[in-house]
Amino acid sequence: MSKIHVTTSVNGDPTEFLCEADETLLDALRDRLGMTGSKEGCGTGDCGACSVTVDGRLVCSCLMLGAEAEGREIGTIEGMAEGDTLHPLQRKFIEHAALQCGICTPGLLVAAKSLLEKHPDPTEEEARYWLAGNLCRCTGYDKIIRAVMDAAQEMREAS
Amino acid sequence: MALDDKQQYQTREFKVVGTRVKRPDGVDKVTGKARFGADMSAPGMLIARVLRSPHAHARINSIDTSAAEALPGVHAVVTRADFNEITDDDFTADILDNCMAGDKALYDGHAVAAVAANSPAVAKAALKLIKVDYDLLPHVTDVDAAMAKDAPVLHEGRTNESVPDGMSPNVLARYEFGHGDIEAGLAKADRVIERTYKTEATHQGYIEPHACLASMGPDGQADLWCCTQGHYMVRNTCATIMGLEQGQLRVTASEIGGGFGGKTTVFLEPVALALSKKTGRPVKMVMSRSEVLRATGPTASSSIDVRIGMTKDGRITAAFAELRYQGGAYPGSPVEFGSMSAFAPYDLENVKTVGWDVVTNRPKQAAYRAPGAPMAAYAVESAIDELAKGFDLDPLAVRLKNAAREGTKASYGPTFPAIGLEATLRAAKDHPHWTAPLGENQGRGVACGFWFNFGGDTCVTLNITPDGTVTVSEGNPDIGGSRASMSMMAAEELGIPYEQVRTIVADTGSLGQNEVTDGSRVTFAVGLATIEAARAAKREMCKRAAMVWGIEEDAVKWEDGAAHPAGENAGKHPPMTLKDIAAVASNTGGPIAGHHEANPEGAGVSFATHMVDTEVDPDTGAVKILRYTVFQDAGKAVHPDYVEGQFQGGAVQGIGWALNEEYIYGDDGVLQNAGFLDYRIPVASDLPMIDTVILEIPNPGHPYGVRGVGETSIVPPLAAVSNSVSEAAGVRLTQLPMSPPKVLSALHSK
Known about the structure:
The complex is a heterodimer of chains A (159) and B (750). Chain A is of the alpha+beta class and 159 residues long. Chain A is built from 5 helices and 5 strands. In chain A, a hairpin with a 2-residue loop joins strand 3 (51-54) and strand 4 (57-60). In chain A, helix 2 crosses helix 5 (142-158). Chain B has 750 residues and is an alpha+beta fold.
C-alpha cells in the first residue's frame, strides 16, 4: 500500500510528510516529524495528552488522521513558547508547581491556551469543565487550575 | 545498622529547605522537550507488539508462529520457548511468567507471544497470523470465590506453610499481627460491631503507558531505555531473566509519566531484550492503554471483616480484622501491609489482624501507593466512625482518645518514636472546615491513615566542578520533583544558593545499587545520602583550605558556603568560598567530590487525617465532592509545593477509588472496561480545590527531620469519603466504589 503525501503547516513551518492511510496525526507528528511533545496516553480521545490545534480548534491528535492535516495549520506544544520566551501559561505552570511527572502537561497547556483564546476571563468552573478532557493523575488538578487562572489574569492585564 | 549520631535530626534554621524554588525539569516539561519512555528512537530500530490471551484461564497447547515469521518485514517472534527457565528464584520466575506466559494463560491480557517488525503496521498484522491452541479452563476473579474449596485452581503447590490444611490451593499465605486478648477486650465494651467491607481493584492510572527501547549485542552487552520507578531493579531483573551479568546491562531511566507503584516491576523490558538479541537490532515497545489496564498493575481487590468493641465514652477495648486480598495470578498481594497498617493509628490493648494472600485470574498486582493500606483503613475507619456516631460522639474526639503517640506499642510490633497523628487530629479539630455548615443531602466525613515509609539501598555522588558549581548524581527516577529537593538539600548543607546545584538521575553504570522509587523513600533516603555526600565534600574542602593556609585540617570549619579558619587561627586568613576552593582544586590534590552509600533506617512513619464534605443526589445516586482538606505530618517539608502536590494527588486518587474506579469483569473473566472512557479516573470538573495543612513533627531519623509524604495521602480518603457519603445518604455504605447505582440502591434500602 503506498503512502499518502501530506503538505501542511506545523507551528507556522511549511511541512511535508508521508504517512499510512490509517495513521493518526499523533503518530505522524511523533514518528514522521520527530515532534514527541504530544503524548499518547490512551489513543481513544479520553486523556487529552495528545491535544493540538487544527486551524485554531482544539483536537485530540490521536482521533484525527495524519492525511487530514493536508492544507491545515497544526499547532503543537513545540510552538507554544516564542523563542526563549515562555508563554505565560508555561511560566505559571512552573511557578505554581502545576506539574509533577509532566506527561499530561503539553496537552493541558495546549488545551488551556485554547480556552484563554476563546474565554480570556473564565470562571474556575469554566476552566474545570474546559480541561475535563485532559487527565492528570498526579496533581488532583488544584495547582493546574490555579496556574491557569493566574495566567488568565496576567494575560488580561497585559492586553 | 545503627544510625550515625550525626544523621539524627538536629534543630536548625533552614535557608533553602522550606522555600518554593522552581524545578530543574520545569522548562523541558512545559515545552515538550522532556523525553519520556516512548519518546526515544534508535537507528535501525524495530517495533514490537505483544499478542495477549483473550481468555481468563487457558492451557496453551501450542503456538504456531510460522505464518507470522514469513510475513515480509517481520524480523523475529518470541514466545516463552525463547527464555531460559528460572528454577532458583520464584520471585523473578513469576515476573518472567507474567511477561510471557508459560504453559497456561492466567488472565485476560496475559502475554503469549511478541513480534518485532520494521513497522508498527507489519507488527500488528503479524500478531493476527500467530496461531495459539488453547484449552479453556474454569476461572475465578473474586477473592471470596477463589477461597472456596471447589474454586478453579490457578497453581498447585504454591501454598506457604502458614496456611492451614484443607483450604483452596488459591490461598497462598496467612499473616497474623497483634497483641493482647481480643475476647477479653470485647467483653469490656459497651458495644461491639461486626461488619464486612469490600473494595474493587483499581489501577494506578499513570497517564504514560509502559515503553522501552532495548539494544542487545552478541557480545553480551546491552543497553535499555525505559520508563520505570527503578532502573537498577530493571537491570537486576532483566539480567537474571536474560542470563546477563548485571554490569553488562546499562539501563537509563527516561522521564517517567507517573508510576504510583505501578512501575516498580517489569512487563516489556525482558521481551524487548529477547527480541533485540534475536534480531541484532534495537527494539522499541510501547503499550496501548488497553494493554496497560489488562496486563499491568492494578492493586488488589479486598474483602475485610472487622470486629471492634468500644465503651460509651469512645475508648476502643479490642479490635480485630480479617483481610482477604487477591493480588491477581501470582503470590504477593499487599495483604501483609494491610494487616500491619490496619490499626496502626491507634493505641490498643487488644488488637489482632489476620491476612490471607489469594490468587485469581486477574493481572499480577503491582504496588499502588501505600500498597494494601487504603482498603484496610477503609474498613477500620468505617467501623470506628459507625461506633462513634452510634454513641453520638465526635468522630475526631474518638480518634484523639485512641490515637497512637510516642511510646505506643504499634499493632504490628514496634514502639513509635515521635509521631504526628495527634497533631493532624488537633489541626483538623481547629480548622474552620470542621464547623462549617452543611446543607440538605450533604455529609462530612473524617478518617485517619498511616504508612510505614522506607529507606533502602541508596547511592549519591556530589561533584564540585572547576568553576564551583555542584552536580548531584542520584539513582532514583524523579516522579514528583525529587531532583529539586535533592538540589535544595545539597545547597542547604553546602551553604550555597539553590541555583548553584543541578541534580541528575544517573544510569545504572554510574552509581552502586539503588532501591526503586518506592515506599516514600526518596526525599528521606536519597536526601539523607545527599546531605552526607555534601558533608563529605565539605570535609574535603576544609582540608584543601587548610593546605592553602598551612594550618591543621581540624582548625578549619565550614560556614555559609565557605571554609573559615577556626579556633586560634580564627580571622588569620580570609574565608575561602566553595568557588575559591574549586578554582585551586587541581593544585591541592585534584578534583573534589563527596559521595555516600547507605541503607538508612529511621524512615519515620507518617500519619494523616482527611476531612471531606459530599453531597448525594437523591434522584441519581451521584456524589459530588464539595470540600476536601488534608492534614498530614511531613516531618519537614523540603519543598512545600511538592508536599502539597503529594497530599492533593493522593487524596484525589483516593476519591477516584471511593467513587468511580473499578475493574469490571464479565462472567467470561474478561475485563470489560479496559479504557479511560469506562475506567473513569477523576477529571478536573469532578473536584473542588484540595486544601492542605502541612504539619511538621521532625523525624528523629533524618538530619533535617524529613519523613516520606507520597503514600500516606491515599490511605484515609476511601474511608473519609465513605463516612461522608454515609452521613449524606443517611445509610451506611460498605462497598467501594460508591458509584451512582450502588448509592441509589443504598438510598432505596433505607
